[in-house]
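Quick one:
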Amino acid sequence: MSNKQNRLNNAFTMLESFLALIVSVMIIFGLTMLTHSRKDVGQIDALFQLQSACQQLQEQGYQLISSDESRLELSNEGHLKRLLLKRHRLILQGRNRGEMVLLTGLQNLSFRNQESYQIVEAKTEQGEKLRAFLVLPKEVKKE
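Output:
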């Protein structure tokens, strides 16, 4: 009988097993929510950075010279610049190929000309889609 009693004392009771299961489920649920919320924060950060880059270009007085789907030709105080995607980075490329990185981690980038503004659409390396609006006046050609 003592051998049988030792086996019963060493085994988990139904209540202990149920409590262990509840605690495990709560831990897994918490980790899942933490991971999911972290993914959302990453997307918000990338979107905020894209919108901030567009806002900076607007505030610094850039003017639009020309546009196509993959790049924008800009001018600032007579200096020509290009806004484009290069090596998964949104860059502002100046004269002599000098570059300023505005955003990293992009898989693709496109511009859609809407006459009075540009729609900037990007996809991150994680697959998140981003969209921002860039309002630049068109450069008036001096004659």
